[in-house]
């Protein structure tokens, strides 16, 4: 079985920590078994590895997330990058064309698709591993995983099974749906998106399942569908024609059109950590970052990314989130409303993780001449390097605050250390590799200060040194 993890869009439901560059799955507010900070995507990748599934998995993502995925999962993770964001059907079709035409995966191979951020336990991946066998036994076009509901939620979609007798339904509920001697799946009749509470309760009585966005199919099923739609099945051609694919979800384009679908019940722990109130329920410490919460503040959480302390006194059932992008103080039950408040906010992200480390915007202004001036604190991890790049629209001045590294500036290599200053005019090629953790204050001055101004000519350090360094 091959797995495709979907890590696509951006969101602001966890503002101010989540933004257009850093989605919720990248926030390091959880803890791994050793007690170290861990993001949702790191947790899922760790669980895939423990289940023996990571080596056959890839991540389908968008270009803005490549750097942070590499930073959090490592250089070895296989990424399929959309040329532009076009919803889940194009993303899965692109990944399928890669598996078929580049890796020569068999058309009979099972492809499992899952979100990159489900909060689940090991048993979830045990059920995931049964999908290939159940597809073979059932002869279905698609196999879905459905979560056995614990309450009539209005937030989730529901998978409605084909009609069963009242006796069978009662037996299903009391025995986790099926006797152990039977195959653990049901035939799917239809789907229902986010019903009201009373309708959800009635669906649960009919043995309905929460739709958790996990499904599987044979690679040949999707490849033949692409052929029928007159879409390319070769990866290189799919990349070229990607812009003409309709922006549509896989659910609408494929799942709802399939003639035979089964659903496999997962009767275990599952949660969507998409809002501050649900996320804080899974945090094993009330404080992340610098600050204090008094003992009479019950069920209160503080997440602080700044290097200034925050104190919370006598306030219960609230969440306080602090980042360079802003400050949130909210009643936990009201916290999902933040998405509506900031949906039109278009401020550039003030903090980003990259494959080489991270940066934080310290200040932004416009000088008397009309140029923009931006100040960043850049932290480069040991043995990591910036790409060899130049800028069309800005000049930069670097001041090394701490650490040591090797600078390459227009083909000339030299050491840099604490106290050194580097002037980089527009058009000058430059890169730096950190020997120890390297901290740089960067001041940008130019007519337009945007990340798209970066023109990268090489990424790997050995390629930069071999190709571009001038040797005496």
UniProtKB/TrEMBL annotation:
Gene Ontology molecular function, alphabetical: mannose-1-phosphate guanylyltransferase (GTP) activity
EC number: 2.7.7.13
Domain MannoseP isomerase/GMP-like beta-helix: 301-343
SUPFAM superfamilies assigned: Nucleotide-diphospho-sugar transferases (SSF53448), RmlC-like cupins (SSF51182)
Keyword Transferase: yes
Signal peptide: none
Nucleotidyl transferase domain mapped to chain residues: 3-284
Mannose-6-phosphate isomerase type II C-terminal domain boundaries: 353-457
UniProt keyword list: Nucleotidyltransferase, Transferase
GO biological process: GDP-mannose biosynthetic process; polysaccharide metabolic process
Listed name of the protein: Mannose-1-phosphate guanylyltransferase
Naturally occurring in which organism (per UniProt): Paenibacillus amylolyticus
